[in-house]
Amino acid sequence: SMNDIWTIESDRLRLQVVRPGSEIYGRTRFNWNGFVNRITLDGEIEFAEPEQRDPNRGTSYGAGLCSEYQHPEALASANLGEEYPRLGNGYLTKTRPEFNFMVNEPCRPFPTIWDVAKDEIHFTTDIALCQGFAAREERWVRVQGNQVQIRTKLCNLGKRAIVAQEYNHNFLSLGGEPVTPAYALHVPGFANLAGGRFMGDNLYGSDEKQELRLHRNPEGPYMTFLDTPKEDFAPFSFRMTSDNSTLSVTEEDSFTPARAVVWGVEHCMCCEVFVQLDVAPGEEQEWTRTWTFDR
Questions:
Q1: Integer Cα distance of 230 and 140 in angstroms
Q2: Which of 4, 13, 3 is nearest to 290 (CA)?
Q3: pLDDT by residue (tens digit) across 228-262?
Q4: What gap in Å lies between CA 16 and CA 33, rounded to an integer?
Q5: CA distances from 273 to 53, 163, 185 (A)
Q6: Of 53, 58, 233, 262, most Cβ neighbours within 10 A?
Q7: Sign, CA torsion 143/20/130/91
Q8: Cβ proximity of 257 and 277 under 8 Å
Q9: pTM
Q10: Cα three-residue angle 67-69-73, rounded to 5 degrees
Q11: Which residues pair with 198 in a beta bridge?
């Protein structure tokens, strides 16, 4: 229903943002604040894709721009059957020793308030003390011209440091064009693109061209782990292009990445850039990602 989504827009971009608590996305992997499942440029070009299109494939139901915290210390601090705070979602009941993002866990959502304007949504989530952790998370999703900016501020109100990583998934295509060897992911901020840890033999990297490409049309997922950020490369950005098109997507980040993961299937190619969080009690950390959609 229309109550499940908000639309924010600029003169060039229209974004569909899923409301926290909506059945469109109510699972316990991705952050409920700032789940962007549609991105339309100039009223005609679509960039956001679902995680999977094939109904026979397993999926965690991601779409478009959606982010996830990885905070293993919170999970480890709970015994089986106890609650722990899952940043981005709520108080999760620990049902298994390791977190599995394909499984939807029992969750009491954190209380969240929001302020919706024509071109921006501001989320504020309060996390009460649980396993020694407490925090306030604020997120701003803003659209301006052909850019989307997602800014996050995490304030540690608990007794323990929050040492975690957070990334933004990019389930994106260039106007719906299927992913082929014509697609290129330009990642100049990482070294050792050719020698990374690859899943499968289709995706490959060139350090000379500073890009990743496919050898052949994909028939399933492909993946690599980029573990060697260039510390002096700022601001960090990556760019997705296609030899068949003038369309492009660029993400620019306010931080030096801790690492990145590239994952994709037949219909989307995704670069997930991780920020390192290390927030002492009473301190806060802020980071911003900005996407530019060009034609």
A1: 28
A2: 13
A3: 999 888 899 999 999 999 999 999 999 999 999 99
A4: 13
A5: 23, 17, 13
A6: 262
A7: negative
A8: no
A9: 0.97
A10: 175
A11: 224
What the block records as the tokens of 32 is 């409920």
CA–CA dist 52, 38 (Å, integer): 15
- Residues 6+ positions from 54 with CB-CB distance below 8 Å: none
For 84-130, the pLDDT digits (tens) are 999 999 999 999 999 999 999 999 999 999 999 999 999 999 999 99
Cα separation of 241 and 72, whole Å? Answer: 34
